[in-house]
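As promised in the previous annual report, we have extended the structural survey to additional targets. Below is the entry for SH3 domain and tetratricopeptide repeat-containing protein 1.
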Amino acid sequence: MAPERCPPHTPPSRAPEETVCTNGPLCGFLGPCLETLLLDDSLWLSSPEEAAGIEALLDETCLHRLYRGLLMEEGAYSGFSPENIDARNPRAICQVESAAPEQVPDGHPPDGLEPPVPFHQWFLKANAASDGLAGITALPVTDQAATGLSVAVVSHESSVPDEISFQKGDEIEIIGYFVSCMPWFVGRRLSSGRVGFVQSRCVEPEGFLAIATELPCTDFFREDGDSSTKEESLLDDLARLLAPTSQGTICSAYQIDAQNDVGPQKPREEEMPPSFFNEEESPTPCRALRSLMKMKDFQLTEDKKQQLPTCHGPEPPLLQKPRFSLRQDGTLGPEIPDSLLSFLNQGGFVEGLGGLYDPPLSFLKTSIQGDATEEELMDSLARARAVARQADLPWATTRLCYLLGRMSLQKSKLSQARVYLEEALATLRGDFHDLHLVVTLYTHLTGIYLKQKNAEKSASFLDKAASLLMGVASHTDSAEMALEILNYALKRAVLSRSRNAEARACFLLAKHCLTFKQGQEPAPFLERLQQLLNMGQGLPSGGGSVDCYLKLGQLYSQKCLPRLALSCAKVVSSRSSCSLLELFRTLDLVLRNASKVHSPTPGGQTHPSLMAFYLRELLHALEGSRGSQKLRGIIYCGLSQLHSRYKRYEEAIGYMEAALELNPTGEVEEDTINHFIFLSWLYILHRQSDTALCILKAVAESPWSTRQQLGVIHNMAAISLRRRNQLREAAESYFRALGISRETGSVANEAVALANLGLLYLHSAAQSLGEHFLIKAIQLFSELSSRECGGNFVAILLRLGHHYARGAQKEKGRNCYEWAFLVAMECEDVEGQLQAVQHLCHFHSTVVPDPAQCVLYNEYQLTLLRKMSDKVTEGQVLETISQLYLSLGTERACRSALDYLKRSLGIFIDLQAKNKEAQAWLQAGRIYYALRENELVDVYIQVAHNAALSSRDPNLEMEMLEASGDIFFNGDWEKEKAAPFYRDKALPLAVKAKNSSAELRLFNKLVGLFLTLRKYEECLGYAQASLMLSVDLGDQLSERVAYHRLAVIHHHLGQCELAEHFFLKAVSLCPSPLEFDEEALYYVKVYLLLGDITFYDLKDPFDAAGYYNLALAAAMDLGNKKAQLKIYTRLAIIYHNFLVDREMSLFFYQKARVFATELNICRINLSPDQPPGRKFP
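The corresponding structure token record, generated without further manual editing, is:
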């Protein structure tokens, strides 16, 4: 669950590493964590039928081995002996010291010890020094819990007042819960009615149950404000939560026409009338228009109704708590009200006594009136205690002693508190009618004994206090003094392997830690409680499990562990029994944490797409709920917003129309017009401008639109008209919007209107006018703060920069791009920064090439893409940077290119993009070839082939094989390695796939390769095959190349007649007349070579002179003086030595001398011998 670790609440040791192995999987967090880490943001917007998810399966054996390895690395740890697991034998725990690695093979602990689960290991280690836990090391294995009746299996005679006597066979009612791993429970003997402690081993319960089903734990885990499930409260809270997703910005601020297409929008089948505000009825059907008509009918009906007065009934009086006054008399001292003593002397527990036993001791603040200080209050209560004693009021005496003891504890006077509490317990004389009082007395007394290290007293009280806390639900189970006792109870549950008792103890400890927020963290106990609930085995996973997950999510959120918090929300929402209130709490948890792990949303909005999943769940829960239209409308609007940000306009339109249709009466509310305007904008973005115009016209004619909304409507209508290529009407509508913006004093809207006019004129080829309006808009934007202008300023600067960059003012274009980049940085607009950087990258790579600047901006683009989690574009940018470094050609640049390429390769592997992955592997091999690391070249080429094979795409496989051969063919060494790739691997695939063009290309590469390697015999067959395939395909250029290469091969093989024949065939396929200088140069070279072959090899000077004359004509047409010098020289030699024409010989010689003089050549060789180093084209 990277990058988070769970749990984060352990003391500084190896506990986090140990618990991370199991907490996530057992709590169900692993899959949801991986989903938030790996799934693309857009996948959360998928419909429930197409929803994606991750199901994680773990190898339990490997997980346990890893956990044991961590324990042994830690050193000392706790372990259980496997032979002591029998239910009738005590289960002993012992401390294991660190062992040498050779003593612990295969990750198994020494001596066959069984390591406890991670939570037990952490708990035992964290509380190893506790006095209360030190004395217990072994207990019988038992996991029984019961309520109801039990039967005594032995007789017992009590020797202390708090225990009851009974005979074998007596029925004893269980008060609270019977937990077999605890030595005591509270019971009532039915025959006598006496209540007191009963030893657990002395009775046999009639039935057993999972005590977690009866515990009132869920109420505590809920927040104070969550108890109300009224829809009005949910409506207000949900509206507040979704406020950032509202469409207020779009409905109050003008929008930029950001469409970049130049051509007009294609008309739909049903076109709008040419004028926006004409009186004709639009034929376009639209659900939104029906909603608008319903609103008009409702308004007419409301105007006829009279307002009726609203009657409010009298409110019921509030329940008053008992209050008592301690008045001050100067001579007699504080007066003790009789009502206080009477109230405190009640024999059992009544509702008003609850404030006596809660942790903050709220009774003193809510029921005692007066201005006395704390010392004066204690003196008054001490006098009241004395009065109660004298009046023989035992319950009042007990409770006053308890109050004095609690107040002494608050002042850290332990001895004084112990005296008061012991007196209270003695006065009680084993009376259990007020069970809350009994529990709190035992809890605080035991806590004092443990703090004072009174071993004798604590030993006699600890078991009973722990049994009371585990068996009786009361206000004192989260008392501050209960921590050590609850830790003791948890250890007993761990040693007894009692899941029921462990669940109860974990709940109580979590409740204690949440109440006092000091000492231990609550998260480990909640995690373990949830694990026990998820394991089943008698423990339920109902509402308590949901509340436990939600409380865990809140704790993770407070500790900045957003992925774990979101995992809690995902697990809760997946429960089919999840209530509306629980879904609302889940949504609140998501809103607090989703933005911390998800990329910034388009447009700089706050809520990511993850919200859509939970909004749909909430919407599903509201189905069939009466009177939930307004709540569902808010959810529909939120879903529409989320889909529109990710350019899913069709779904966004559906949700917004559903929100408008949820108004059954047609009542016009504050946001209704905004909904219509936002719906119109969605239609514009979805390229349905006619429908948008239809809605905008109806809204503009309605009586509910404000002046500012009318300006927005005119601006949107102009955008729609521009996209319909109604430029004149669009300009008129823009000017109306501009006038309203000036009328309302909105500078930002005025700037947008001017910018849209500028874009309209640029679209109409009025360049100067468009530039003028854009500059005026930029001047207005520059006067506003970054918060006011937002992303519009960035968009206009980029558009003006693009206009300059396409023209002659390229430096101005660069300045506009850089200005836009700075504005986006100031606004913290990630998407705007990305757009500006992409323009700058294009500018420095294409418009005014500057590799250094291009690398710099691409590096920053990488940083932005990581923030936006756009892995696809990130991989492409990494490839681009790699190519930029590779173009520098130095060894250092090649290694930098290799680093970036490997990073892109990792992304392609994650994205399962086999094509890009194979190309990246091959490119890495190409770079290693340039670095002359030949062994790595072969490795990377082989991996590229494997990636291509795994894609099961024969074309990709053939492409990779051919590209592998290209590495060697285009290189400077080991060219022969290209032959197997072309001939043995790629060519058979091309033949099998009947890909004639690829087959021809491979034949040509083989011919070129063997010509370079001078393997003419092997080359001949491929050249002939290339010729035949070129003729079949009708590819004249390839046919001419094939003839030329055949001529060269035959000449190298000494077959001069065939060489002459194929050269002439190649020349015959050249276009006539000549179109390019390259064609004339080809004629020069070929005819010169034909002349040489005929003259020197075939010994035919007459034909040679003819070829030389043809070469001369081409050279003269080309104006190539060196070629003319060479040809004149050859002709002079032929006519002087063989054709014996002195006049022509002298003519050619004189021409040669002229060119030799111009080229500063001193001597002309007229020898008839073949010139050395004759080359063939």
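The domain at 695-784 is CATH 1.25.40.10 (Serine Threonine Protein Phosphatase 5, Tetratricopeptide repeat). The mean pLDDT is 80. These points will be discussed at the next consortium meeting with the crystallography subgroup.
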